[in-house]
Amino acid sequence: VIDTPFGRISREVQEHLAERLPAAAPQLVLLLTDSELNPEAERILDEYVGQKVILDFDESNSSTSLKVVK
Fold it and tell me: pLDDT class for 70, splitting at 50, 70, 90?
């Protein structure tokens, strides 16, 4: 599990990291914010993604649910 791996790095470094992360382990869980990943790095990672999930916070009842998007 890696929390915010693309947080404060440049676009170019994000893309290099995205190319190398899949080789780091047989399975990875990346915790990303909605603004953290640039489109090219996301495209690079997409071919390796088995499942993409969004945490959806409902303010009306202060609960979080999981929404599978891939």
Answer: confident
- Does residue 59 register a pLDDT over 90? yes
- Strands in 1-70 per DSSP E: 2-3, 30-31, 53-58, 63-68
Question: SS3 for 32?
Answer: coil
Distance CA 23, CA 28 (A): 10
The alpha carbon of residue 18 and the mean position of all alpha carbons in its chain are separated, in whole angstroms, by 10
CA distance 67 to 63: 13
18-32 confidence digits (pLDDT tens) = 999 999 999 999 999
Of 36, 34, 13, nearest to 21 by C-alpha is 13
Question: Comparing C-alpha atoms, which of 7, 9, 5 is closest to residue 25?
Answer: 5
Assigned token pair, 52: 């993409």
